[in-house]
Amino acid sequence: MNITQPARCLFAKVSPSSRQTLRRTFHKSTSLYARPSPKHKSIKASDLGLVKKDESSKGVTAKDLRSYSESEKAALAQRYTPAQRAAIEVGEAAVDPQDLAEQAAMREDPMRLNYLDDFSSIHPVVDKPVRAPEENYDPNLRFKTEDELAEDLTNWVQDLPEQPDRLDFMKFMDNTRVTVGKEEAETNPRSYLAPEIPKLAMLKRRMGDGEEIDAPTRRLMRQTGFSAQEVKRFRVKSLVVHRVVNQTRLGKIQSVYHMAIAGNGKGLLGVGEGKSAEPEEAKIQAKNAAIRNMQPVPLYEGRTIFGDVKGKVSATIVELMTRPPGFGVRCQSLIFEICRCAGIQDLAARVGRSRNHMNTVKATIQALLSQRLPEEVARARGRKLVDVRKVYYGGNL
């Protein structure tokens, strides 16, 4: 056995060339071991004195916290009363300047402000909204008495034209002041309150503490502007439910179809459709679509419709007829539920030809939204509308 072979293996373990492993290079840049080391060390600009230190980061001493000068006291006298100035001086005398110098030091962390600001003034661009000027504040502002309001109304009646209009009264209500004092203090008052909370936080506050809401309802609230309580108060009814099958190359895919209506019982009515593989999800889609599609339905005296109307969808024809008070809603079940959601109390209906449930609902909605109001007819004919009940019976009917 050769003695030099073990010795060569021993020295190869500690040699630097043995630590480099052979590998294929797949990048154009040189490998880490082949890069040359820099000849000169990196020099920082702060070592050469090229960087100026921020003067705002200097420490504050007790000598810098001096008392008010005569000019500063004169400036305070313009904005504060003598009692307020005395309270300010007593409060500052109670604080040791040495404590302020030690505790109220400027921040040195990266998140500090790069400028000195006591946040006493509001920047018109950065700080929103822009508050009204302090000159608008009136300490002697008070509400008008009943006699003063009656005097304003009397003066307005005396200055009325020969043919007054409702627009004149609306202008009087908008332009009449209810306070005595500066006009700017009422029209653009100075507010010392904090800005409004963001809309999302207001939405969570209106939802209530500890109450969770699902994503579809939250999306519906953003689209319509209704609160969670308003969405819950709407009357929603699912009228048509059946299964549908879609034939594809993968086979027959079954899903559930829902048609729902929604209303507030005071003239708002909407219809929506939803389809999904899960029955509950299809029901939620139809309900949210009905709330999103709600439209105002004209109601005569808040109980019935304006005259007889017709609606036709495909082969289904629906006739809706107005009825006197106490008649009730005498029609089939689908139209009854629609009238209940819309707030209609007296109505008669007739469904001719086809009685398909989907087309019946759509034709009823179409008929309710196609009503012609008396004001529109009078405007189209160039006439003036007068309610004879109020003229001949004094509005007692």
| Portion in beta strands | 15-25%
Q: Structural class of the secondary elements?
A: alpha+beta
- Element-level helix/strand string: HHHHEHHEHHHHEEEHEEEEHEHHH
Percent in helix:
25-40%
Q: Mean pLDDT, rounded to whole units?
A: 81
Order of strands across the main sheet: 3-4-5-6
Total strand count, please?
A: 10
Query: Low-confidence stretches at least 5 residues in length (pLDDT < 50)?
Result: 16-22
Tell me the major beta sheet: 4 strands, antiparallel
Notes on the structure:
The protein is α+β, with helices and mostly antiparallel strands and 397 residues long. Helix content is 36%, strand content 16%. It is flat. About 2% of the residues have low confidence.
Summarize the structure.
This protein is of the alpha+beta class.
Key words describing this protein structure:
four-stranded mixed sheet; about 35% helix; about 400 residues; alpha+beta
Topology summary:
Elements: H1 4-14, H2 70-77, H3 82-93, H4 97-103, E1 142-143, H5 146-158, H6 166-175, E2 179-180, H7 183-187, H8 199-207, H9 215-224, H10 228-233, E3 235-248, E4 251-263, E5 268-276, H11 279-292, E6 295-296, E7 309-313, E8 316-322, E9 329-330, H12 333-342, E10 347-353, H13 357-369, H14 374-381, H15 388-392
Parallel strand pairs: 9-10
Antiparallel strand pairs: 1-2, 3-4, 4-5, 5-6, 7-8, 8-10
Helix pairs in contact: 9-11
